[in-house]
Amino acid sequence: MQDRRTGRRARRHTAALASVTALGLTLGSLTGTAHAEAAYADKQVVSEGHVDVFYVDVVDSAPVLVAHTAAGNVSPADLVIQAKPSVASRTVSATVAGLPGWKAQGETYYLLPQTSQAGQVFGGFGHSSAVAEGTSVTYDLDSVQGPGAFALWQNGEDGPNVFLASADGGPRSFTSAADHEHVNWGFTEQGEYRVTVRAAVTPPGGTPAQLQPVTYTFFVGEELPQDPGPDPGTPATQLTITGLAAHYHAGGVATLTAVQTPQTDEEHYHWFTRAAGETDWSFVPDAYTGRYGFVVRTADDNREIKAALYNHDHQVIAESAPVVVDVDDHGNDPVNGPTITTTLSAQEGVLAISVAPENREVDLGALTLNPAADRYTAAGALKPITVTDTRADNPGWNASGRVRAFTTVDGQQLGGRYLGWTPTVLSATANQTVTAGPRVDPGFTAGNGLATWSQLGTAPAGAGRGTAQLGAELGLEAPADLAPGTYRAMLILTAI
């Protein structure tokens, strides 16, 4: 079986998997002995030895995501993994500097390495022998709260093979063949990190089981922190749900909003639902903002919905009272057919510059001698050039063009520098701010004209999404000794 991320043959551990539990583990002390004021006094602190941080086991015939130590399974909520700088400090190498969001070469970072080393945690991921042979597990990085960047990678012949990274642009998901692997756990700063992951467990030939998100706590520091106690100045926050309609029809859309009173800077939510007659709440996958939208089905009648707001430590700040959905089709209950889904991820947004077929020919007409009789001139207008930006992060764009050279069919040439333009904005969507590029004069006497990249139009960050059409007035000035012929050139375009 091939490991999908590493591209090498995954190591199968049938009997060997069970032996993992026998490897040594040392529990870190709580600054001497555990005492009540220690921040982690009620948790198991691991500062050296082996631990499978991401570990899938089976409880009551259902997969669960836990951590696995020599003493057995531990709930991530009850575990702290400590990286002591005295043994975890590393100097960023040229290879490690390429990790997403990492420090520059020569600076200090902190590492729990993929090889067993004295005085450090030897961390990996895997599964118990109760998991069926051939099962795969997909791990998704939900969030990372901490003072710096976090990355999970494995050293390879071609450099780091990054599994997860908290920095923008880093991988947020990887799939394992549920084998036992050891990896590097890296952090750029000292302090507490709370790493929240979700797992989807897929048995051979089966459908994925989506597990509840769990949060793992890592502490990078020599001495464990003390609990300062509750902040008496922190105001109590209430959470309410707005947007619930008096009733819904099957196939309609419900959009609910969680409202904080008073407003805080926290923005991490979870939504939960409970069908009529059920006692347990179900977590809504992928609903992590203050808004929750869903398509209403007849079976949603009397369904309860609530929201919870979390702080950066993934502790509940406030929980709303449930609201109840009323589905009423006035006696004309339709058959609830299939759900139709399509997805546009943020990464699938595009920036494109294009020219419609009917706009691909521009004729400047005949070259004519100017009144001073020292050059030939011609003029015309560029037909609309379309710039389309659908990127979710709306970073803005810059569209440019250039002409390398004109040529006749028999090889006579005229440099692109003899062409100039005055760009214009022909149209833009309402939420765009598009500015035409500066005038570029033909380079007959000085300058490069359009022989070098010249700005056609631009849109700033936050105001570039949509479709704009750009044009330009074109002007050509050619030497008086130019050979007769029909000269053709191509305008090349780019948008970044």
Rg (CA only)? 31 Å
Tell me what portion of residues adopts beta-strand conformation: 35-45%
User: What's the number of domains?
Assistant: 3
Quote the average pLDDT.
86
Structural class of the helix and strand makeup?
mainly beta
The tally of helices reads: 2
The coarse silhouette is extended
State the helical fraction: under 10%
N→C terminal distance: 41 Å
**Main β-sheet: number of strands, strand sense, barrel status?**
12 strands, mixed
Low-confidence spans: pLDDT under 50, at least 5 residues?
1-37
Instruction: List how many beta strands DSSP finds.
Output: 36
Would you kindly provide a written description of the structure presented here, covering whatever features stand out?
With 496 residues, the chain is mostly beta strands. Strands 1, 2, 3, 4, 5, 8, 9, 12, 13, 15, 16 and 17 form a twelve-stranded mixed beta sheet that branches. Strands 6-7-14-10-11 form a five-stranded antiparallel beta sheet. Strands 20, 21, 23, 24 and 25 form a five-stranded antiparallel beta sheet that branches. It has helices spanning 15-19, 85-88; strands at 25-27, 44-59, 62-69, 72-74, 79-83, 89-91, 108-112, 121-127, 136-145, 150-154, 161-165, 173-176, 181-182, 184-187, 191-202, 209-210, 214-220, 238-242, 253-261, 268-274, 282-283, 291-295, 304-310, 316-319, 323-324, 351-354, 368-369, 375-389, 397-403, 405-407, 413-415, 419-428, 435-436, 454-459, 466-479, 491-495. It folds into three domains: 15-220, no CATH class; 238-324, Immunoglobulins (Immunoglobulin-like, Sandwich), CATH 2.60.40.10; 348-495, no CATH class. Mean pLDDT is 86; it is low at 1-37. The protein has two helices and 36 strands. The chain is extended, with a radius of gyration of 31 Å.
